[in-house]
């Protein structure tokens, strides 16, 4: 006779099998939508039977510089979003019902507007005769207009504006899962508020920080519209090079190789962010 433990394990295995069978159609759909295009991209990049496209993409100084610049801009956007988003998420996690409603409305409002419209709005705000420069001149803070467009500063402003909610929401969700009694216990044991935050709250919120950083970084690397418009052709990112290879030169194999290099770099940096965050959490 089978024991009650064996019966429970059999039921659990059957349940897992049933759940897996239910997930098979979704897994197949995801494979068709995501895995097949990536495999097709890899095949296209070596369709001539050589690795010449990859050699050009990884050894040519121009493309290496653009890749490095793209990673640098993505890292700067990620860092700025983290510095701005953490206080906002922390305040939301401690705010009352109306404060949370107002904060969520302010964060979600940009999602109701197209990225293209928001980028053109920044063109109006940041131009030499735009709202920001006119206000600064009228206030007597500057004499000549500040160069806020067609440079890295304009690109950073536009990208941070678009990607900030993607950093706030994971951190906010992580902070909500922290038991407030832990901080109160630390303060009851004599720890000041800042030490309680550094030793209790912040380490426990690192999963949200890791998720937000990875999400913002990955999205930043593939940005096209915002750097193309606010950069004015002076700030080049890998996505713009890929578009140029397809639109102007019709060089699909080299565009596929650039895309593959970007994908590999993204996955490597994503893994590095996760490893750094896990190390900080266990430190």
From TrEMBL:
Q: Where in the cell is it found?
A: Cell membrane
Q: Where are the transmembrane segments?
A: 20-42, 62-86, 98-123, 155-175, 204-232, 252-273
Please report the record's description of how this protein sits within the membrane: Multi-pass membrane protein
Ordered alphabetically, the record's keywords are: Cell membrane, Membrane, Transmembrane, Transmembrane helix, Transport
- The protein's predominant localisation is membrane
Do you know which PROSITE patterns this protein is assigned to? ABC_TM1
Residues forming the ABC transmembrane type-1 domain are 67-273
In which domain of life is the source organism classified? Answer: Bacteria
Q: Which Pfam families match?
A: BPD_transp_1 (PF00528)
Gene Ontology biological process terms from the UniProt entry: transmembrane transport
**GO cellular component, as recorded:** plasma membrane
Signal peptide, first to last residue: none
Annotated family: Belongs to the binding-protein-dependent transport system permease family. CysTW subfamily.
State the protein's name. Answer: ABC transporter permease
